[in-house]
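Hi everyone,

Forwarding the result from last night's run.
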Amino acid sequence: MKSNHQFVIIGAGIIGLAIARAIKQAKKDASILILDKEEDAAAHASGRNSGVLHAGFYYSADSLKAKFTVDGNKAMKEYCRQKDLPINTCGKLVVAQNADELEKLYELEARGKRNGSNVKIIDEHAAKTIEPNVRTFRKALYSPDTASVDPKQVCHSIKNDLMDAGVDFMFQTKYLGKTDRGIMTQNGEIQAEKIINCSGLYADKIAQDFGFGQKYTMIPFKGLYLKYTKNKTDVKINIYPVPNLKNPFLGVHYTKTVTGEIKIGPTAIPAFWRENYTWSENFKINEFFDIMIHEARLFLTNAFEFRHLAFEEIHKYNKKYFVGLAQAMVGSIDPNGFTEYTKPGIRAQLLDKKERSLVQDFVIEGDRRSTHILNAVSPAFTCAFPFGAFVTEKYIL
């Protein structure tokens, strides 16, 4: 089978969907095909993330993340309201454990204000008024605009919108390689004026077929959440620790889901192949050896303190230790109330091979024939609508 479209998007996650939406908004008669190797949209990170809509205070002001998170938060909330999709507007508290972390709270506040985020430092008494169960050292950072949605529900709604607008979808269609006029898939050649690579965990591989992303490789990290099934009331708000701003992970925190459930996580455990959700799922021996070589180098050189990160994260497989990290942020929680893990996710984290550093910001490369979204990690879901519009205007149309 041979197909021909103006724009072919590889990957039906939130970024691929948002870019298709932006193209259609700019050019209603655009011929767009979205293909994905899975059975439906949002099968990987876009449907397995926490669903938190971030408020934009973690990111340095010169970053794309800072540029799009505040507007993305507003745009996603507005979309959910228009479509009558549920939102939990519970907000977030970032808590400190000691004087050193207290200083970092002020840095987060300063970043947030530079980025236009609605954040403020409040004292311990005010924090307990918002969340009676919270425990913090003197102060906390309050973000009233942080919220939660159902990420899979949002993605499927956007997919339906796109289908109504005339966008074509091909599922169970795996990318096999580049051709002179497009790409080859398991269902035949697909020709296109422009290829848009939004393939998440495999974005680097596809980009390299087109001559881009040569300095990068993907290092996957497994995210596990542990669900609190005792009740929905012991924690009323998202509670986060002060993160290590030298790496892109936010630490174990409390998430209030769109349905009000409580969960803790995620981990950031180094994975051994790209879709290493379980100990055997989607195992690929070539990926295993390639990733193990990169992770061994990071471990031996201790680049970005990878050795400490690896030991710390693997320790989180110990449920008692995992729960203990969460207990430190609240006055009381029943450790026996954490009874089940949610579906694991994999963070498609880009590594700069030469610098041996984790890439903190979104990365986009391309030319007239192709565009490649190489590092669409958190808060990409929050940023999706303005980020999709930016990529469309600057790199696609």
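Residues 273 and 288 are 5 Å apart (CA to CA).

Cheers,
N.
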